[in-house]
Amino acid sequence: MSGSAPRRRSRASAGLPPITADKIIDAAVELTAQRGLDGWSIRQISTKLDVWPGVVAHHVGDREAVVMAVTDRVIARIPVPDPDASWRDWFSALMLEGRAVLRQFPGVARRLVLVGPNVPAALPTIDQGIRVLQRAGFGERSTQIYRYLLNSAFMLVAVEDDRDSYFPAARAEMGRAMAAFAADTTRPGLAAAGAQAAGRSDDPADLAAEDLAFFTFTVERSLDGAQALLTG
């Protein structure tokens, strides 16, 4: 019929492997690494796989279902620490290794903080982490401490993601604004912040190292706060 859209050949007749839910999620994970969790659409997944958008819905579901599947797949990459480690070593390892994974997939850290217990891959970590805290003597506070530690760490990762994705020039602008106070003797607090900003390198590797150092500082101070509940 003239004017009608050309019919797409079946994958089998084109010599292509069948589409599965795993292949769809693989494609979505790859797009998340490239564009962030909010940076792709179902249509872009279908284009990448050369299928109709309805195929994605048939195998996985709507966009929210795909997002949850991507989150689950990424969280599964975070190693669960040795259950015999001390509670501080266990959480330090989880948060540092978790950041290393999550920073590769912008947006997943925020989703994890919001819906962590709904992600199957997170459940073994939650269970073991709370048991590690119970064994350390936190008692009925163990669940609250777990939430405090993980939310503190991974919300900071979410802020790093948001800054890089939505406000890429913000760090340089903020640095210039603060550096202007470096010689302000009437406001020594701002002067100290300004001097630090003025001495900050613009090299991406140096900035990445600074981010990691600040994250590590946050993790250690959060662990100190939890420790105070045991020794206070």
Please explain how this structure is put together.
By secondary structure, the protein is mainly alpha-helical. It has two domains: 21-74, Arc Repressor Mutant, subunit A (Orthogonal Bundle), CATH 1.10.10.60; 81-168 and 201-231. Helix content is 67%, strand content 0%. The protein contains eleven helices and no strands. The chain has helices at residues 21-35, 42-49, 53-59, 63-75, 87-102, 108-115, 123-136, 142-166, 170-179, 188-198, 204-231. The N and C termini lie far apart (81 Å).
Q: List SSEs in N-to-C order.
A: HHHHHHHHHHH
Rounded to the nearest angstrom, the distance between the terminal CA atoms is 81 Å
Secondary-structure-based class equals mainly alpha
How many helical elements?
A: 11
Task: Work out the strand percent.
Answer: under 5%
Segments where pLDDT lies below 50 for 5+ residues? none
Tell me the Rg in angstroms. Answer: 23 Å
Largest sheet features: none
In total, how many domains does the architecture comprise? 2
Q: What share of the residues lie within helices?
A: 55-70%
Shape: flat
Please state the average pLDDT score: 92
Kindly state the number of beta strands. 0
Compile the SSE list and pairings.
Elements: H1 21-35, H2 42-49, H3 53-59, H4 63-75, H5 87-102, H6 108-115, H7 123-136, H8 142-166, H9 170-179, H10 188-198, H11 204-231
Helix pairs in contact: 1-2, 1-4, 2-3, 5-8, 5-11, 6-8, 7-8, 8-11, 9-10
